[in-house]
Amino acid sequence: MTHINDNFLRLSQNYLFTEVARRVQTYQARHPEADIIRLGIGDVTQPLCPAVVEAMHRAVDEMARKETFRGYGPEHGYEFLRRAIVEHDYAPLGVRLELDEVFINDGAKSDTGNIGDILGRDNLVCMTDPIYPVYMDANIMAGREVVSLPCTADNDFVPDLPGQPVDIIYLCYPNNPTGTTISRQELTRWVEYALANDALILYDAAYEAYIRDADVPHSIYEVPGAKRCAIEFRSYSKTAGFTGVRCGYTIVPRELEARTSTGERVGLNALWNRRQCTKFNGTSYIQQRAAEAIYSPEGRKQVEATIDYYLTNADIMRTSLRDLGFQVCGGRNAPYLWVQTPRGLSSWQFFDALLQGPHIVGTPGVGFGRCGEGYLRLTAFGDRADCLQAMQRLALNS
Ligand code: PLP
Predict the structure, then answer these.
(1) How does pLDDT run across 130-142, given as a tens digit for each residue?
(2) Is residue 305 situated within a structural domain?
(3) What is the mean pLDDT of residues 309-323?
(4) For the chain, how big is the Rg over CA atoms in Å?
(5) Tally of domains within the chain
(6) What is the pLDDT of residue 14?
(7) Which end of the chain is more exposed for a tag (fewer CB within 10 A), N or C?
(8) Residues with Cβ within 8 Å of residue 393, at least 6 apart in sequence
(9) Residues 156, 39 within the same domain
(10) Which residue's alpha carbon is nearest to atom 8 within ligand 1?
(11) Confidence of residue 198 (pLDDT cuts 50, 70, 90)
(12) Shared-domain flag, residues 289 and 341
């Protein structure tokens, strides 16, 4: 008889957002009149910017004509987009990348999980707690052991270096869910640790477009030596509202190496290329033209305006919540606010209280890990009117 991958049975039963949706639906069914404001799930609400829409229309027209129709694209992604990334996302940071170090994908979620295909099962993985659940679940599915680095108010949500030797380190900055950022000095400490311990850092920079302060690094490759120890993931989802369009990219530097089971060093760029050529057939031409459009002067301005809109939401929420006496972190250089629950309520108790009282939906912090207990994540991706209304309701409720 067929065997399943038993590791799937080790995953927690309820996917966080499914349980959130279930509770909201149940409440709404019982209280159809309740006007619920959703500040929970990390999806964007503002439409694609005009430069992107025009580029998509043009690409569709090309696909409609025999002379300009495109079939399968290159597995790495089209050169026009990889070149735009190298020139616009990295060159201004002083980071030089070759085109074949850039791999276009259908969003960061796939690759933050898929990258495990080229890494041995026996690697010891470490990640912060709380954490974006995909890293944890993908490694449980693969049967890897994971150690957690607590991020709590006690350490200002900045993880300590691992207390035992680890092989793979997931870092995500600006962070989902805590909304914290990492300083250049802290990031340097991680790069030095990885180089000294022959460890690999998987750096998720899905929210780098929200960084406004000049001293916060946008890329791990701003730190000398990082190309020898880090893979970086980026996404257009929150940068340009591509959660439904689907496009992102992964950087695997040529210098990056890891060991075979017999101790020889092997380049990860070639392995990842081999994996992608076998299992991935690319992201559509239309999506890639859409992504390219955000690097045009108009595209850049329009995308920035939307990010500013969300950052203003974050600022409004952060200020209002603090004025109401909540302990809040995040919300600067990041679209997430990490709110400590009042009166010692658990994450789910506070979730229910907000749903049933002011009819606001957040995401229970405990869903992101044990250390998230006692917190709730709010996102700044809502409409301005909803954000303002939510803060007014909270003020009336407190
Ligand atoms: N990484 C982080 C930290 C995220 O929060 C998300 C989405 O919420 C992703 C990656 C995945 O983004 P996408 O697959 O839409 O690019």
Answers:
(1) 999 999 999 999 9
(2) yes
(3) 97
(4) 21
(5) 2
(6) 66
(7) N
(8) 37, 358, 359, 360
(9) no
(10) 42
(11) very high
(12) no
Q: In terms of domains, do 204 and 153 share one?
A: yes
* Residue of 16, 103, 109 best suited for mutating to test ligand 1, as the one with most atoms within 8 Å of CB: 109
Average pLDDT over residues 2-22: 88
Residues 127 and 244 in one domain: yes
- Boundary of a domain, candidates 279, 296, 313: 296
Classify residue 1: in a domain, yes or no: no
Shortest-distance Cα residue to atom 11 of ligand 1: 109
pLDDT in tens, 81-103: 999 999 999 999 999 999 999 99
pLDDT digits (tens, 9 = 90+) for 265-280: 999 999 999 999 999 9
What is the CB < 6 Å shell around ligand 1?
42, 107-109, 112, 132, 172, 176, 204, 206, 235, 237, 243, 248
Taking the C-alpha atoms of residue 275 and residue 348, their distance in angstroms, rounded to an integer, is: 40
| CATH number of residue 139's parent domain | 3.40.640.10
Residues 138 and 279 in one domain: yes
Mean pLDDT of 324-335: 96
Domain coverage including residue 33: 6-47+298-397
Lowest mean pLDDT among 11-25, 87-101, 313-327: 11-25
Phi and psi at residue 320, in whole multiples of 5°?
Answer: -60, -45
Q: Are residues 131 and 254 in the same domain?
A: yes
